[in-house]
Amino acid sequence: MTVAENTVVDGWRKKVPESVRPYVEAAPLAAFFLGVSSAFPYALIGATLTTRLAQDGITKSAVTAFALTFLAYNFKFLWAPIVDNMKLPGISRFGQRRSWLWVISLFVICAVIFLGLADPGQALFTVAIAAITLGIAGATLDIIIDAYRIELLEPHQLGTGSGMSQYGWRIGASTTGAVALILASSFGWTFAYIACAVFALPAVLVSVFMGEPKRHREPVATKGIAPALIEYFSPLVEFIKRQGAWLVLFFVLIHKIGDTLANLTLRLLFDDLGFSNEEIAFYDVGFGFIAFLVGIFIGGIMYVRMGLKHAVLVSLILMAVSNFSFAALALVGHSNIGMAGAVGFENFASGIGGVTVVAYLSALCNLRFTATQYALLSALASIAGRFITGTTAGGLIDSLGYVNFYLLTTLVAFPGVILFWYMIRKGLADISLGDAGKKD
User: Fold this and answer.
1) For residue 398, which of 280, 274, 261, 268 has the smallest C-alpha distance?
2) pTM score over 0.90
3) What's the distance, Cα to Cα, between the start and end of the chain in Å?
4) 15 in a structural domain
5) In this predicted model, what pLDDT tens digit does every residue of 24-71 receive, in sequence order?
6) At what angle are helices 158-187 and 124-152 packed, to 10 degrees?
7) Contacts from 112-117 at CB under 8 Å and sequence distance 24+?
8) Domain for residue 3, yes or no?
């Protein structure tokens, strides 16, 4: 921007209420649009695909087995060092983060079209291959977007930027889900999936207008197998050398088990309770989205007034208790009020956690290894829940029933709460932070 353009922009921001002003800074706004693009592949292989398979008469065990397609998100740290260290030939002159973002966005679009063309009723195995392909593409896009976001934000913007990213993520997921449901009702699932590929564009446009992030640290060129291997494992070595690192990693691994178990089976609950596509779109996507926005706003206030650690602790408690609301919905049955209450509470709690927990995971990163370390942390955050969901959730629902299943997810969420409380008491929640959470 020119000096005159910057003056106009700054003048506009000064007219915004002071409490809202941090949210309209360039980097947090960019985080919002990055979140939109990050969410849509996840939505298409998550709730949307679950609904599509359920409507095609696929068994519950087969439907929940598709949760294993999310494992690409859990193991993305295995190839994240490539994103951190490898320069793409030719296009890398536009920057390490931007060149990867453009190439992988194209890959994601192709994978979405592939999944849209696959027919569950005729070739379920092809659908599985397409879902896995999109999972790998979406996970790689996540690696790049997360690194770009963290390196774009200043330390004091991590809370605001995390909140805006979650706003974008939920808007991307909700809009993708709603658009897919509505288009599928009128034009079929193939058209719905192909149309949703447009959600890849916001992140691409952000990278064009914002450029390469200023806090990005270029990789060091290496020659030979040994130096390359050292560079590959450097992100993990740097992290585990920190005091209490193993305990922090264990917390990240277990803190979302209950939440992940519950969320990846909700569409099965809604379908069995007889909710229509329109009701799901209104309550789960529409009403839930509003509750999520309120949660993010409250989470931002908590972040400022309580500090990062205590805000995280409160959000963990709320997310654990929110699973109980779905046990209540399952007990009541088809109830619009019950649906609104359960979905509203869960999304409200998730909105708060989206600000606090994401800010904490971002602050744990070292700027030299942003892509790899955040990929590791975000992958660990849900791997246990996704694995259990894909291997046993359908059977647990059949044997325990929905009420007892969601009570179980509530109980398994509390060990993470207790562990983080212990980390606060021992000072590990502060000691473990990386330089992404510290001023330069």
Assistant:
1) 268
2) no
3) 24
4) no
5) 788 889 999 999 999 999 888 877 777 777 776 666 666 666 667 777
6) 150
7) 112/41, 112/44, 112/193, 112/194, 112/196, 112/197, 112/200, 113/193, 113/194, 113/197, 115/44, 115/45, 115/49, 115/193, 116/189, 116/190, 116/191, 116/192, 116/193, 116/194, 117/190
8) no
* 327 confidence band (pLDDT: 50, 70, 90): confident
* Number of domains composing the chain: 1
295: number of CA atoms within 13 Å, CB side? 30
Tokens of 231: 């560079």
The residue assigned the tokens 């650690």 is 309
* 8 A C-beta contact, residue 45 and residue 66: yes
How many residues in the chain? 440
Question: What's the CA gap between 386 and 64, in Å, rounded?
Answer: 10
| Tokens (6 digits) for 401 | 């029933």
Dist CA 320 CA 346 (whole Å): 9
Is there a domain that residue 392 lies in? yes
What is each CA distance from 435 to 15, 242, 255, 420, in whole angstroms?
33, 12, 23, 21
Percent of the chain residues past pLDDT 70, beyond the cut: 86
CATH number of the structural domain spanning residue 272: 1.20.1250.20
Q: Which domain holds residue 430?
A: 22-437
Whole-angstrom CA distances from 156 to 4, 60, 280, 295, 326 are: 26, 45, 38, 20, 36
Residue 303, both tokens? 């972040």
Dist. CA 278–CA 290, nearest whole Å: 17
Count the neighbouring beta carbons within 10 Å of the beta carbon of residue 414. 14
Closest CA to 265 of 5, 47, 24, 33: 47
